[in-house]
Amino acid sequence: MASIVGGDHAASRAGIDLRAAMSDAGVLADVLIAALDDYGSDLALVFSDVTVEAEALGAEVAWASGTPPRVKREIAPDRMVVPDPEKAGRMPVILDAARRVILARGDTVPVLVSLKGPFSLAALATGLEGLLTDALADPARAHDTLSRAADCQSSYARAIVATGGIPLIGDPFASGSVLGPDHFDALARPGLSRLVEEIHDLRSPAAIHVCGDTSPILASLLTTGADLYHLEWADLEVAAASGAILMGGLPTELLLGTGEEELEAAVAEGLDAIPNRDRFIFAPVCDVPTNACPERVRAFMRTARRLA
Predict the structure, then answer these.
(1) Domains of the chain from N-terminus onward
(2) 225 vs 166, 196, 229, CA distance in Å?
(3) Which helix or strand (DSSP H or E) is residue 96 part of?
(4) Which of the four pLDDT bands, split at 50, 70 and 90, describes residue 258?
(5) pLDDT, mean of residues 173-187
(6) Contact assessment for residue 255 and residue 284, using Cβ atoms and an 8 Å cutoff
(7) What is the mean pLDDT of residues 85-102?
(8) Range 255-276 burial, b when 16+ CB lie within 10 A, else e
């Protein structure tokens, strides 16, 4: 069982300003470890927010009180050059936090460390609308942007593996809710496949998380060869046939509710839908919302363990 807690919920749970936690490796590691111990998750996730790499590349981010940062101003695609993960922006914060979490708890649980998929990084850093426009009007320019993004993430993935963490490639914009199958194959899958292959070459497992409806792209997504797929909305029987470990099962919005019967029914339904429990990590289908009540997360973990 896993609670999938990122820096935003971990900081909120601890009563610590999100920007402070997302900008300081020691604070980020401390709040993540505290949440891990509180909830009793079987894995740890080192994740701050989706803008880390885009900001390191030069995109301007805005910080609103109580919420994770968002990209305020994108960069031109030709400004996307490979950064040094140990020096650029807040990438060193994530790497140092990963080292701290691994030192503290890596002997008891796997530690996943988040990085963006190349398509999502390109969309965040240079703008989704412009990227999709280029894909239609100037495919060579779009593929150059995506290649640059993949180069950046290849470097970051190597740095993550060097910490001892397992790269979790989050590609929220590559969802079937955004891309049709043909565009997924042309724009998102090549970068994902490249990263998985390179991570495997480093003798590390690779995990992928995709938000939204993955049904239209599921067959193609599974060809990327990841060892673990954390999917929000997918045919679990089809996904399980890939042989990969699957993670998910509980709609994340239920962690914002209050009804105990509703939660228990959803956990029971989610557990019943698992095709192979030996290769399934029951967890929320996305990371725990920032302001989810900690007792609700504890209740989820207790209920899942009791019913499993």
Answers:
(1) 7-307 (3.20.20.210)
(2) 15, 7, 10
(3) helix 91-105
(4) confident
(5) 93
(6) yes
(7) 98
(8) beeeeeeebbebbeebbeebee
